[in-house]
Design brief:
globular; 30% helix; Aminopeptidase; alpha+beta; eight-stranded mixed β-sheet; single chain
Length: 179
């Protein structure tokens, strides 16, 4: 399996490796980082999460990825796609270690993920949401081209959140191109 997914100006997106657990403790394991999401992931669950996302990449061609800062070679965040049953509609997510907030990495990684989705011939629509108080994340979604669709209830965070979408490929485009 090719672990390298995408390279941007300052970042590399790649499939998770087992040794990434030490970095994910500062991201998904950090209550402050994950406080506006569904909460921190317990340390003992992180290896299982890594395995799940690696399997998702193998089986579906899209996943959540390790975001590596080129200059340091360190995993500074995660970005990619929560893929449920099909690729028709997938969720864009991104999380970064607190020490890397405010440097434009989330915008860069989010934009890279959009490029990855566009190159995947199966993805039709991306969606994303953020805590209503997380103004930075909401600005990022708009900056990288997502369209605000309204408020939507999310069970994992137990609240209504601003909901965004981006059409990657029109479902009817293949049919229209054949005519």
């Amino acid at each position: 399996m090719n672990k390298y997914i995408f390279e941007s100006e300052r970042l590399i997106l790649r499939v998770f490796e087992p040794e990434d657990v030490k970095y994910l403790e500062r991201i998904w394991g950090d209550e402050e980082v994950m406080g506006l999401c569904a909460g921190a992931t317990p340390h003992e669950m992180l290896p299982k999460v890594i395995e799940y996302y690696a399997r998702c990449q193998e089986e579906k061609g899209l996943s959540v990825y390790a975001v590596v800062e080129k200059v340091s070679g360190i995993v500074i965040g995660t970005a990619g796609f929560n893929v449920k049953d099909s690729l028709e509609k997938v969720e864009l997510i991104y999380h970064f270690a607190k020490s890397y907030w405010g440097r434009g990495y989330a915008s860069e990684a989010g934009s890279a993920c959009v490029d990855v989705a566009k190159s995947n011939n199966s993805a039709l629509c991306l969606f994303a949401s953020a805590d209503p108080t997380n103004k930075s994340s909401l600005r990022i979604l708009e900056k990288i081209g997502f369209e605000f669709k309204g408020l939507q209830w999310f069970d994992d965070t137990n609240q209504e959140e601003p909901y965004y979408e981006m059409v990657i490929k029109d479902k009817n485009s293949d049919i229209m191109n054949k005519n």
